[in-house]
Amino acid sequence: MSDTLYYEVGLLDEDIIYLNTLQEDPMVRRWLGMLRRCYSGVSLKDNPSYLNVYVCEEWLRFSNFKRWMIGKDWKDNHLDKDLLGDGTLYQPSFCCFLPPKVNFFMVESKSKRGDCPLGVSYRKDRDYYEAYCNDPSTTKKVRLGTFDDPYHAAVAYQQQKLIFAKKLATEIREPHISERFVSKYESKLQDAKDKLAEFLGTNE
Fold first, then answer.
1. According to the model, what pLDDT value does residue 71 have?
2. Is 172 helix (H, G, I), strand (E, B) or coil?
3. pLDDT score for 110
4. How far is CA 202 from CA 99, 149, 158, 196, in A?
């Protein structure tokens, strides 16, 4: 056991014979990666979205994180804090392991779309809205059509996103996590439909 605090917060409270083997241990590697994302100054500079993300007190001790991880479907999967939680805290009830393709599918680039809804862009030169959705099986962008307003475009995007989500859900081995994944996109589609209904109601 080492007295060293990794990233000034994490205690590796299990014996590791050679320090240079730390990154070779898959459980240690994921634990250190989690700490790095939240507490490394270099990492936070490169990815400031983690500035207000923390690791719970329990998981600052490696042995607690390892005990939780042993019972999960972690091999070849990514540690996720967003699907079950609000994305601000790594803790047992908020985290799960997801296939890389699923984890990437959930990424939302808020800074790139301006004021438009997710998956929607405005073509000022032609005065219409477009909807696109990335196909996770090919990583190619699928064009969903053009629209007179962002609300119809957003519904088209969320409908296609849900179709892709249902296909991806079959790659998640734990049923309750698979169900939560699909439910996430069902809720997003319903939210888009509600905003469209409100828009149509105010423009009658």
1. 86
2. coil
3. 61
4. 42, 13, 22, 10
Do the Cβ atoms of 28 and 14 come closer than 8 Å? no
Report all structural domains of the chain as residue ranges with CATH numbers, in order of start.
1-98 (no CATH), 99-204 (3.30.730.10)
Considering just the CA atoms, what is the radius of gyration of the chain in Å?
21
| Per-residue exposure over 127-161, b if at least 16 CB sit within 10 Å of its own CB, e if not | eebbbbbbebeeeeeeebeebeebbbbbbbbbbbb
Residue 28, CA atoms < 13 Å, CB-side half-sphere: 15
Closest CA to 38 of 48, 23, 49, 50: 50
pLDDT value at 115 more than 90: no
> Could you please report the per-residue DSSP string of 51-109?
TT-EE-GGGGBHHHHHHHHHTS--TT-EEESSSSS-SSEE-GGG-EEE-HHHHHHT---
Per-residue pLDDT at 13: 87
Question: What does the pLDDT read at residue 131?
Answer: 96
Mean pLDDT of 32-56: 96
The residue assigned the tokens 């007179």 is 148
Count of Cβ atoms closer than 10 Å to residue 44 Cβ: 16
At position 8, the amino acid (one-letter code) is E
- Give all strands (DSSP E) within the chain, no chain letters: 5-6, 10-11, 54-55, 78-80, 89-90, 96-98, 120-123, 128-134, 141-147
Reported residue count of the chain is 204
